[in-house]
Every structure is written in C-alpha cells, then in structure tokens.
Amino acid sequence: MAFKDLQEFIHALEQNNELVRIRQPVDPVLEMAEITDRISKQPGGGKALLFEQTGSAFPVLMNALGSEKRMCLALGVDHLDDIGGEINQLLKDVSAPKNQLKDKLRMLPLLSQISSWMPRITGKKGPCQEVVITKPDLNILPVLKCWPEDGGRFITLPMVHTLDPETGNRNVGMYRMQVYDAQTTGMHWHRHKVGARHYQLYKDLNQRIPLAVALGGDPVYTYVATAPLPDQIDEYMLAGFLRKRRVDLVKCVTQDVEVPADADIIIEGYVDPNEPLAEEGPFGDHTGFYSLIDHYPKFHVTCVTHRKNAVYPATIVGIPPMEDAYIAKATERIFLVPLQLSVLPELKDMHLPFEGVAHNLTIVKIRKTYPGQAQKVMNALWGAGQMMLNKILVVVDEEVDIFDYFSLGQYLTNHYIPETDTYFNRGPLDVLDHAAQKMGFGGKLGLDATRKWPEEQHETVSSSAIQNTIDEPRYGKSQVSGIGAVNTQLLEYGIGCIIASVHDDSIPKIKNIATRLLDEVRSPKIRILMLVNEELNVEDLGLVMWVGANNIDPQRDCELLQNGPYTENKVLVIDGTRKKRGDKNFQRDWPNVIVMDENTIRNVDTKWPQLGLGDLLPSPSHRYMSLKKKGGAAIDPQE
To answer: Which of 165, 280, 484, 556 is geometrically suited to a Cys-Cys bond with 501, CB 3.0 to 4.6 A?
Structure first.
C-alpha cells in the first residue's frame, strides 16, 4: 500500500502496536541514540520510537524500519519474499510470447499498470513546501550526534537527489551529511556510488551540482534510496512499483531538481566541485567501528522547506543488529529474483548475516549442474552491482538451509576441503572496510562447500575421520604459549571450526602459534581456525563472526597450514586480530569499536522510568566496553 505521508505511516505503526511515543524531553545529542540502541537490539528489533520533545519544533522518528514486520508494513506486503514473487510474475508476463492478437490485447492492462507506477511532476506546490525558509538555518532541525567520538551532528536518513548532467537521469541515494554550520554540511559520496560519479561529471563540466535532500514522506522512499539499482532505473519507478501508486514530484524553490511532494522536509542547495574538499568524520558506522576522518565535498544550503506538521526521521548505525540490518534484509529478499533472472539462474537463495554487516559475508546456495559452477557463481557475484564489495562468499548446494547455521556448519565441514576449495581474489571493497590493505581495495575469500563432481574430485576425508576425536571439550585449556582461550565445542557437533584468542604480545608470532595449536588439538575434523584478540569471548560466536570478518583482508590474513599430525590435510587459518601500523605491511589507522560513554548511559538510566519503555534495559555498550581501546575514534598507535 502507499502511505500518503509519514504521519499516516506513524498511525499505521501505532495501530499495529509497533510504535512508542516518548513524551519526556530527550537530547538529540547522544541520548536518543543510546535509547534507540537499547530498543533496536531487542529480539525482532524492538519498537519504533517517536521522540516528541526534541528541543525543536520537529518530533524525531527512529527505528521505524527496524524489524521485518515494520519493513513489510512499509512495503505493503505480508512477507518480503512476496515482492520477489511479484517481480518474477511481472517479468514472465512481459516476456511471454505474444503470437496472437488476444495475447497482445491481454498486455494492455499490464502496460497501463506499469505506466501508472512512473513518477510524474505535478507542476504545483507540494505539502513539503507548506513552509518555505529562504534564509535557511539547519539549527532548527533536531540533528543527532549518535556516538561520543563522532565529528559532530549528522543527518542520517537523507535522500539525496542529483541529476546526471549528460542524460538527465535522476539518482536518489542515501549519503550521510555532517552538519558544519547553519548552511553547510558534508556530502559523504563514496567513490563507488552514483553520487560520486555525478560529482566527477559536473567537475569535468566546471559546473555546480544542483541537488536536494528529502527527509520523510512515504517510508518506501527511504528504502529505495538504499536499493542497489542500475543507473538507468529511477528509484521512484521502483517506489511506484512497491507502493502501487506513482510518486508525485514537485520542483524545488531554488534548485532545478524535483522531490517527492509528500516528503516532510526538503533541504535545497548545491555542491561546487571546484571547492576544496572538507574534512568529514569520524562517524560511528554500520560496521560497528568508527569510520575515520576523510575528505568529501561540501554541500551549501540555499533553502529549507517543510510540512507544517513535519516529522524528522533519523537512524543510528553501529554494532549489529540495528535498523540498517532489516533494510539490508529487504534488499536481500527483493533483489534475489533479479539476480536469478539476469545473472545467475542457478542461484536458489542468498543470505547476508547481520554479523556480516552487509558486505563482509554472504552465503549462497545453488543448483549445481556442472563442475566449476561454484567458482562461476563467485566470479559473477563479485562483478554484480554492489555485490562487488563482498569480502567473504560461501557457496553450498540447494538442499542446505542457509539460515540454520548449525546445519550449514556441518555441511561445510563435510564438503569443504581447504586445500582445494579455498579461492582468493582481489577487487573493490567497501571504503568502510578498515582492514583492507588499501582503502576500498583488497582481498576476497571464496569457500566452495558444494558437493564435488568427478572432474573436481580430490582425496576426501574418510567417514571415520569426521567423527568426534576429542575425549572432552577443552574450554580455555591450552598449553600453547600465547593462547588465551580455546573453543573446541563446535567440533563436538560435527562442525570443523575452532576459535582461539591470542595474547596481544604474541600476535607477531601468530603463524607459529596456530601451527602449535593445531598439533595440540589433533583433530582431522578441523577445517577453519579463527584467531582473535584476547579480550573477545571465544564462546560468543556472533561476536567472533562480527569482529573476525571485519578485521581481515583475506589475502593478507588467511593462510592454509598443515593440520597438526594429519599431514595430508590443511586448515584455513584466519587471523581476525586487529592490526597495528607495520603489522604485515599494514599502514592505516585502526578504528575503535563504537560504544556509548558512561555519562550518557547513566543519564538514560535515570530517565528510563519516565520514557514509557517498560523495565530498564541495560546499555548494549556494556557488552562491548572491553573491546574499546585507548584513543578516540582511532586506536592509539601505542595501544
């Protein structure tokens, strides 16, 4: 269904018991983020939050899309997979043979329906222009500072509208905006994004970039601004398909750009490509680590317009799961069908675990019909749109439940042989990947855990070899110098992975330590050994997956070593420890883990009984305090 405005969506959230109104004053500086972090990490994503007393004229809506149920409500479906089914049926109808006149006539209603989804310019003023401020002051907005080491306040749900100067094609992207003063912000255009490409085109033409930033409106707009669409597909065409109603656009007051008429707030302005780049950041990012200071274009505000009853939408990102994980989940389900139809017909399903923060880890299952097909899938996905930023890709057969990590681990143990089924590559990575040897470029890891065809056959582990060979679990029991704790429990369940923590002063000898540990454990079942820093709890598998995947560049930090006394077997050893300058020729600053400061935590604890949120929820930051190191957003090099 289409929501006529954000207020109607808020009403729908209330009707479905998915929203809590917070009527007590809450500070947009840190306090809103701390409250939302506690709620969003509840099972299923908690509730949406509407902060009504914000120190401004605008309420703040947060965690609005932070659950699968609320994503479905926003997109007008019962299940996210329903959208993929609609896309599949639509493409079948359009591409079906039309041999007779009656077949062609049947297409007319469908073509009319498709036409009704296309955006249109109304030629009138829209509700988003009920109030026009030609002397703009961004200080009227309740812009959040989310985390203690952030470089300032950031607009976190902006839908940034730009036009390709050559084709006129519109792009709507979501790029955070650090507020510098009343009339300027940063424009965080990553090098891989369309906004950055438009920036370069205008720079070549020596022209300013007219643009507009929309906030609010139908929540579908927020989703499509994050969707990985091809350049030629207008985000508002996808929005029209999802909401089954076209998007009405209006001309901005001071810029030649169109924006949704039903948005809540519009910030108009320009970027001058000839202006020096501005320092931007740090920012507590969706990886769970700070993205550090870098330089980005500066956005100059020329006008602000808004509804009379406007709501300011915002989000926070940080250690998963948070709201962005559910937005990514929608993309996972919606874009599966286009991938199947356009690139990979053998693809049966895909999964991006929350701990993989979208780009670090992807698991796919395929219908395998020839040898080498898993490698074909790896190469295709690493070249498909935003999937090019994936770092670790695991491929399994179609019968595997890729959402059941227990059975997935057992299947991988039985079908992945490290010495022959491990594939390393290099390519573009997310610029937020702090472990990459160079920003935005580094190693990739592919694991082929499919059943092997005769042409792929190699000497396999015998059925007796994968039985339990350890007399008893040894939690934290190792005689290897430098090892803190060892988790061998997964071996007891037929999953060939062990996890060990390493004392910080022993990390330079990590290869030698791994070799001695494998000789000590003595299990032919081991396929993967993950090594992490000593402050990590090696029995917390989600924590290990999140930190370990963030902390590796596969070509630098993954190695095949002999499995102890089983000389015919290899183990994939993954060095998931943090790196210092000079370690393995690494020459970048290492970011700190994102946690809230104790003063804010205490303030929220005090306010909690008046917030209407039930029993006090402890701060999630307390779970991660031991991971934070000395320094600010970047770890002190001496730490």
So the answer is: 484
